[in-house]
Amino acid sequence: MNDIKEKFFNEGFISKINLFQKNEMNMIFDEYQDFLKKKNKLVDLVEHKSKTHLFFPWANKLIRDKRIINLVKEILGENIYCWNSLIFYKKPNSKAFVSMHQDQNYWGIIHDKALSVQLAISNSTEENGCLKLIPRSHKKNFVHKDLTNLNNILARGQSISYNDIDKDDLENIELSQGEGCMFHGNIVHGSFENQSSNPRMLFTMRFLTTDNKIKNEYYYNDATLVSGKDEYYYFNKEKSIDEVSIDELKKIHKKILINQFEKYLKIKLKFNFITKFMMIFFNNDFLRGVVYKLSKKI
Predict the structure, then answer these.
(1) Buried b vs exposed e over 170-204: b needs ≥16 C-beta within 10 Å?
(2) Distance CA 178, CA 25 (A)
(3) Which of 53, 164, 222, 269 has the greatest CB tally within 10 Å of its CB?
(4) Pick from 87, 58, 60, 83: which is nearest to 72 by CA?
(5) Comparing C-alpha atoms, which of 98, 105, 51, 56 is closest to residue 236?
(6) Torsion angle in degrees (nearest 10) through CA of 243, 254, 109, 262
(7) CA-CA distance, 176 to 16, in Å (whole number)?
(8) Domain that holds residue 30
């Protein structure tokens, strides 16, 4: 194995990777701040944070940027999908946090064939709630439970009990603008509150090999092919902004997120017929927005 691949699988992560210039990140940060200041639909204020590459042109370009893809190929090989992209934004002095968890615990993917790249759009420090992880924890599976806390950024609230981990093992992943961290799909990670007077913005991209499969009862299996070719056809292939307009991508985005809303509702309500009945109403943007508002996702 080459050095970067060996380090990645031994430690479970690689951090402080120089990827982009600060002025490139400032442009994205300013554009995002402008978006937040506009009069947006309630539903868009929540749903843009997932599958972000189908919502913002800058995000669609980032997931296919060679500076990122060449790095991912060092670990995963040539044939790669970007399955998801997410904005982790914390307002100044925010109570928002991400509970400690392992992604692979609920994705249901093939072990060692998925990773995340987290890019610092703003500086990410311990004070403003940077990523925290436990080195080498990807080699062990932890018990997860759904944590009911409205300040938890994770939709399902999946969490590892703090009794099962040693807080002293947590390592702060502090990043300057334009730097990134690449981490294993099974590593224990999360983040604490933003205790600073400045917003903190991270953009996370989830990459999978094309021979992976997702737990489709919980998650969408739509993805953008960003490298190589797909000979397995497990995923619905998304188009890129080079092929269609951003308005067309947003239509795809909305369809996928409504489908995801239904999957989460099914988890909570248990019975399919109740979920189907409720979705008659929740296909409506306004009503989904009200749910997000009541659940403090906005």
Answers:
(1) beebbbebbbbbbbbbbbbbbbbebebeebbbbbb
(2) 6
(3) 53
(4) 83
(5) 51
(6) -160
(7) 8
(8) 3-294
CATH number of the CATH domain containing 242: 2.60.120.620
The pTM of the whole model exceeds 0.70 = yes
Residue in 244, 254, 220 with CA at minimum distance from that of residue 44: 254
User: Helix (H, G, I), strand (E, B), or coil: what is residue 210?
Assistant: coil
The two structure tokens encoding residue 56: 């913002």
What amino acid occupies position 292?
A: Y
- Note the pLDDT tens digit of each residue in 75-112: 999 999 999 999 999 999 999 999 999 988 778 788 78
CB atoms within 10 A of CB 287: 14
Give me the number of domains the chain comprises. 1
| Residue 42 CB-half CA count within 13 A | 15
CA angle (211, 212, 213) in 5-degree steps: 125
User: How far is residue 21's CA from residue 155's CA, in Å, rounded to a whole number?
Assistant: 32
pLDDT at 107: 81
